[in-house]
Amino acid sequence: MPSWQIQTYTVSDGIELSFTDSGAPPDSRDYTTVLFVHGGVFNAYQFRKVHAHAHALNLRTVLIHRRDYAGSTPYSSSEIEELEQGSAAFWERLSAQVAEFMEIFIKRERIPKLNRQKSSGGNGGVAIFGWSAGCSTVLSLLGLTRNPMISEDLYIGLQEYIGNCIIYDPPYFCFGYIPPSDNRNYIPWNDPAVSAEDLPGVVAEWISSYYDHPCYDPVSQSLSSKAGIHDLDGIRQKGDRMSVSSWTDEETAMGLEGTPAKNEVLA
User: Fold this and answer.
1) Within a 10 A sphere around the Cβ of 73, how many other Cβ atoms?
2) What is the pTM for the complete model shown?
3) Which of 52, 230, 235, 262 could covalently link to 1 via disulfide, CB atoms 3.0 to 4.6 Å apart?
């Protein structure tokens, strides 16, 4: 398994974005690069084990740390103010920085272009994977509305590489939604009993918990397509079993970050 060796690229305005890279599969000219964009509280370290499986699947995995997380440039005070105000420019800037990161990576690593004619096997290009709050950055980059902070040339260049987008477990606010007025499910950042200092830990336990949803269908091994928010086991603050409870102190220190989470969640 590749070591957890963090690299850094510098984009416009001196902004640094850190990442780890599985490297290219040996002797492959048609591998696909998967860029992982993590969510809140949990940084890219949580995905580290995918590196060990990448080459066997003809993949190259790149785990980027979002702004304010390990090794990447923290938000400035003006950016935090933009975040608090719900400024579109804040998200446009973040996604433009990720776009520039991809441009640098593509050129330096000379990754294979996307082969849209190939229906099976390796078809090169880039797949962007957004998890949880990281989906906001991905959607800001790939949304229907053109980002004014991304040049036309860069858009055209990335179109030759980006072939897939995976939106995994996106929260409601990534789509600009608000919870229904009759929502009974627990949401940590809406809990007045949780202090700012305790919030990251509460979120980590909540996110990594295992729940027993009554609407789970054992045949399809998924939730029923007819299920609504009231059919979930979502009232509890946390489950009886949590992934983070099995982490060592070192893994917790490397994988969970409180400060950026508070900046984002409390904005």
Assistant:
1) 20
2) 0.92
3) 52
Half-sphere exposure of 87 (CA within 13 A, CB side): 13
Residues whose CB is less than 8 angstroms from the CB of residue 67 and which lie 6 or more positions away in sequence, other chains included: 15, 17, 73, 74, 75, 94, 97, 260
The angle at the Cα of 9, spanning 151 to 5, to the nearest 5 degrees, equals 145
User: Two tokens at 223?
Assistant: 């939730």
Dihedral of alpha carbons 49, 51, 56, 58, sign: positive
CATH number of the 7-174 domain = 3.40.50.1820
Residue extents of the structural domains in the chain: 7-174, 179-265
Residues 6+ apart with CB under 8 A from 161: 102, 106, 111, 113, 114, 124, 125, 126
In 10 A of CB 176, how many CB atoms? 9
Tokens of 156: 């055209």
Provide the token pair at 252: 């917790």
